[in-house]
Amino acid sequence: MSEPDSPATGPSAAAPGRPVRADARRNRDRILSVARAAFSSTTETVPLDAIAREAGVGIGTLYRHFPTREALVEALYSAELDEVVSSAPALLAELPPEAALRAWMDRYAAFFEVKRGMSATLRAGWASGSIATPTTRERITAAIGIILAGGSRDGSLRADVTPDDVTMMLLGVFLSTAATDSPEKTAPLLDLVVDALRPSASRNG
């Protein structure tokens, strides 16, 4: 059975500004986790009742957190974007710049896969204004810039490449592998991007 056309309402719905209970927070996090896995595995429409069932909650609980499909997609997109952006400085704090950049690319690739699964809803929501237009490109490019700056300082990454250049290279990888349905080529192509970002002396041996 498909999900209802309208969200659940009533006294059990959370009031704006009211602190979220721990169990409600866990339910919300489970729903987002299941939605993330579902949207990253297909570009077909994912039924909301299937997400609720996999998360172990009722459809009414899902709707109390996310009154519409657009609300769920917007929340997941925002959470994923925040995570991929914040992971750049976190990885750079743990790894050398070159390794941090390669690990971050994998995280960005995962974000791109989730975004693909939500693309129809996102496009419609952005066009209608029901989903706020995010500053994705700017934030992704800024995250790349953090790692490139670290690599430039220690000499492990080229200083003559702009963060926007790298963003365009990565989008080229993701869009081309998606268009040819060849996800197995993503990792080798990302390795080539990293190789291209090493200083010439390093790349030439």
What can be said about this structure in brief?
With 205 residues, the chain is an all-alpha fold. It is built from nine helices and no strands.
Structure commentary:
Helix 1 (22-41) crosses helix 2 (48-55) and helix 5 runs antiparallel to helix 6. The termini are far apart. It is elongated, with a radius of gyration of 20 Å. The chain is built from nine helices and no strands. The chain is 70% helix and 0% strand. It is mainly alpha-helical. It folds into two domains: 1-67, Tetracycline Repressor, domain 2, CATH 1.10.357.10; 70-203, Tetracycline Repressor, domain 2 (Orthogonal Bundle).
Beta-strand fraction estimate = under 5%
List the uncertain runs: 1-16
The CATH first-level class of the largest domain comes to Mainly Alpha
Oligomer: single chain
Largest sheet: none
Going by helix content, strand content and strand pairing, the class is mainly alpha
- Return the CATH topology of the largest domain: Tetracycline Repressor, domain 2
CATH superfamily of the largest domain: Tetracycline Repressor, domain 2
Q: In sequence order, what are the helices and strands, one letter per element?
A: HHHHHHHHH
Q: Which descriptor suits the 3D outline?
A: elongated
Total of DSSP H or I helical runs spanning 4+ residues: 9
Q: Rg, please?
A: 20 Å
Number of strands: 0
Structural domains: how many: 2
